[in-house]
Amino acid sequence: MSYSGLELKNVHHAFETWSLTVNVRFEKGSLNGVLGASGAGKSTLLSLVAGFETVKSGEIRFDNRTITHLAPKDRPVAMIFQEHNLFPHLTAFQNVLLGLNPRLKANPSDRISVNSALANVGLYGKENRLPKSLSGGERQRVVIARVLVMRRPVLLLDEPFTALGPALREEMLMLIKELSLQHGLTVLLVSHSPDDLSRFAQKTAFIHAGKMLCYAPTETVLNNSGISAINDYLKFRH
Prior knowledge:
The structure is a single chain. By secondary structure, the chain is an alpha/beta fold. It contains eight helices and ten strands. A six-stranded mixed sheet has the order 6-7-8-3-9-10, sandwiched between helices. Strands 2-1-4-5 form a four-stranded antiparallel sheet, with helices on one face. Helix 3 (about 110-120) crosses helix 4.
């Protein structure tokens, strides 16, 4: 049976005495949250989709194409981590260009794409600045621009804005939301913040001890899940 979107079908991953088992479908173009305590398996889930961790059994598919054993560079996936991963000696333009050409050779089409992406995230006129001359929020925008030029339809976010203050974190989340809807991206956002997910995610998955206990509309997960592990987690978070 065909499925348009991101599907993890009976995916199992194991490391020593710990394991993660996931069976879920994320609609194409949807905004999804991933919630759970530290060590539950949230980052591992993203790493399996990105190809940084190995699936022991099961299948990962996107738009009816099996990507389970593809190398990370060959997957339709881009990822933003907690650290912004900008090279301090490269300009904003060059850091974004890395998403197209690791050798930093820009043809006319590449220049148009990079400049357009920087303008799209509000950095027009700052193409030649080094990261040290940019604010924290501007550095995050450079990372987002690099993801945009890669043109990959699945975007994974592993708590990328945790170090930012509340106002700037919300600004970055709303920028990601706007750009994701504009480009039709399928997004998975790992967060410890129920408030962030309530503003961002259409649906949220809750992972507990290596199991996905729930995947439902975010409002349901946060307010009326009826699952004791989720209720206990939310009491702790609040």
